[in-house]
Amino acid sequence: MELKENDPTLSRLRSACDDLKKLVHTSVSVDASLEEADKKFAVMHESLSMASKRVAPLQTLSIANKALDTRINRAISPALTLLQSFKLSESLQRKLLELAAKLSNETVPKKRLKKLIKYVECVEKLNGSIDSISQECEPAIQKLQEVVEFLSRTKATDQYRTQQLKETLITLKALYETEVDAMKFDGLLDEALLNLQDEYESLLLQLRHEDIGQAEKDDVQEIVPTVLGSELEIEVLERISRTLASNDCMDICIDIYVKARYRRAAKALMRLNPDYLRTYTPEEIDEIEWENLETAISLWIQHFGLAVKSVLVSEKNLCSQVLRSIMEGVIWPECFTKIADKIMAVFFRFGEGVARCNKEPQKLFKLLDMFHSLEKLKPEFSETFDGEAGADICDRFRELEKLLVHASTKVFWEFGLQIEGNQDGLPPPQDGSVPKLVRYAINYLKYLASEIYSKPMAQVFRIEQSWKAGILSKPETDENLLRDAIANVMEAIQRNIESKRLRYKDKSLSNVFVMNTYWYVYMRTRNTELGKLLGDQYMKKQYKIVAEESAYLYQKQTWGALVRLLDKEELNRVNKDGIGAVARGKMEAFMKGFDEMLQKHRSLYNIPDADLRDQMGDATIKLVVPVYEEFLSTYSSVLQAKSYLSPKTVKGLLGQIFEGGNQQMGNGRSSLRQRDQRDYIGGRLSVSLENSRETKVGRPSVSLENSREMKGYSRSRSNSSAV
């Protein structure tokens, strides 16, 4: 197919051919340019390679300089900090000297305390600064050591500079090893710490226990501990304690505190004049007179409570406030215990000496006083000495209580054994009166059963029972324990009385003795705590009935036998001619026996109890006088030859011997009055006996006044009047 000239297709083909020619021409031009550029790049590459070889040494030197710069900066930073610490230390030392000068010149107590606080603060800062120097010096030396080693290894600088750095390092090490320690232990800080120790001791000694003498006069139960020190003083002491402890002076601080406060507490107690505490061994205590020992024990009880409730409680509070910041409050209980231990040891050893000395009966009540005081004090004592630190003191407190319990029970039981064994070493009273041992024992038991001593004694018995039977045993009540124990002693008293009764040869006197003694026991215990404890029925059965039986036997054997001499049965069997002789014989025998009875009652028999004596007198008069009067009246016709005592005179004579007008019966009157009364009665007796003949029918051949018995009676009366 032929294409026409003006065909659009042909036009497009021609145009495309022209474009291809241009493209080929352009490609040839570009290729030539690229070849030219390639040549230029080759020249540049050769130039850069040569430059790189020339720059490489400079790059290595730059890296080394950066490493050296880093090490120098690391060494300079600690050194600068160290220099700042040295400057601060010098500044604080100058300030400390200024404060010390002001403190020494200040005399006003409150202002001085405030300056002392500033002084303590400055010491604390100086100590902190020196500690910083001590801590910062070693890192500075270490960093400088690294720089010297780097320069020596890399030779980044000349030998001269390296040598200078080495010398600086040596100097810094020497400073660290000598000067820093000197600053801390031999310099101004050490002097400041010594000054603080002196101020600490002085301030501790200034805190005194006030009104300790007045507290002794007050009730121990109402004692209030003394507040030691003001808030400012406590703050100063606490700051000084903390400062000393933080400067390796804790042992010195504790030693100063313990010695100073013990000295002050001991002086407070010495104001009470406890000289009795110097005697504390059992042997020495046994040599003390009882009155002095009794006083010493009373003072010990009072002073022991005062020491715990006032002095030591105050010391504990002070110790807690001053030393609480040391070791998180662990150390102050130990310090307080050291102070208290020295004081309490003196009280403990005296109490232990008393508990271990001879077990004499009169010591029981003081032993119970001591035990009761410890029991009342136990809550406060346990609170004061709580914790592990006070364990040893509490143990010794309990040991003292055990000793007192053991001593009290031993004294009581040995007292009963002494009574039963009749170890008083005395014969029965010759006049049938109450033995001193019985009087002592009854009053002893009455005192023991009183409200004051019954509770502590029962508590002691209960503790003793728990020791013997064990804690798990069923305990008796306090009342039963005390009643059983006292009943045992009462039985021992009875056995003692019965043993003495058997030693009388005169049965009438034996009955008088039993009557007097048992009546005394019954009357002295009636309506008392002792009687209530033992029971009224027990006392009546054991003592009153026995006394009444003995009184009956006395009447029967003494006056009943005399009355039987006037029995009429024999006269009824005699004829009229012999009645007079028999009647006169009976009357003579009666008068002789009556005279003997009068002499015995005046010189031998004794009924000390006035009420009992009156009762016996009335009973005797009722027994003797009616029979005598009846006999005299019945046989008056055959008794005319002699004069006999009138019934009124017999009644008067009987009344006199039971009125207590003689030495044996009149124990309640003064000696002068007894003598006057005896002289008066003796004279009256002589007159009445002589003049009574006029009232009697008949006259006996031998006068009663002139009889052998009456002469003996008169001599005994005159001798007693002359005493």
UniProtKB/TrEMBL annotation:
InterPro entries: Cullin_repeat-like_dom_sf, Exo70, Exo70_C. It holds the Pfam family Exo70_C. The keyword Transport applies. One of its GO terms (molecular function) is phosphatidylinositol-4,5-bisphosphate binding. Residues 691-723 are annotated as: Disordered. One of its GO terms (biological process) is protein transport. The keyword Metal-binding does not apply. Residues 300-644 form the Exocyst complex subunit Exo70 C-terminal domain. One of its GO terms (cellular component) is exocyst. It comes from the Eukaryota. Keywords: Exocytosis, Protein transport, Transport. Belongs to the EXO70 family. Component of the exocyst complex. This is Exocyst subunit Exo70 family protein. It comes from Coffea arabica (Arabian coffee). The gene is LOC113714353.
